[in-house]
Amino acid sequence: MRQSMFILVFLFALTFASKSKPDWANKDIRDYNDADLERLFEQWEEDEEPLPEDELPEHERKPPAMDMSNLDFTNPDSFLKQSKKGRTLMTFVSVLGNPTKEETEKITSLWQSSLQNSHIIADRFIIADDRAIFMFKDGAQAWEAKEFLIEQKQCKDVTIENQVYPGKYSKVHQEL
């Protein structure tokens, strides 16, 4: 009698437990559709703590506060520099003359090292025989790097936010 009572209670509990779950949760995992997987993911994420600000993807971070009182609106570069602070920014740099890809690699590597010695951190990517991208995690550093780069003998020009800055030794700069 006890065994039959135990089996009856067990079956009742098993039936009751399966009824408390939603229908999609009782499906075989192989039969889940996208909506079921999304609900499962939302349940998974419910109890997690939010990520700290510095670990969030860049598009989800709050932009840093800009101090409008210190901005010089007569100088558009200073305004752009402040607006790009804390944001990733790509700068295009062209090498003067007709260098090979290896020569461009060597020259831009020296520039990258010099920038890093000045605490300006940039990733460098060669995109053509005479052109490279410098990617700055803090976009405000791009303008400091620009000042250094346009002073270099092998620098043809630097492009930041579609604004071209000719190198000091380029023909364009000498014509100005």
Automatic annotation (TrEMBL):
Pfam families: Mesd
GO biological process: protein folding; Wnt signaling pathway
Record region (Disordered): 43-68
Coiled-coil region: none
Compartment(s): Endoplasmic reticulum
Signal peptide interval: 1-19
InterPro entries (alphabetical): MESD
Keywords: Chaperone, Endoplasmic reticulum, Signal, Wnt signaling pathway
Gene Ontology cellular component annotations, sorted alphabetically: endoplasmic reticulum
Record's compositionally biased regions (Acidic residues): 43-57
Family designation: Belongs to the MESD family.
Entry-linked PANTHER family: LRP CHAPERONE MESD, MESODERM DEVELOPMENT CANDIDATE 2
Protein name: LDLR chaperone boca
Organism listed in the record: Blomia tropicalis
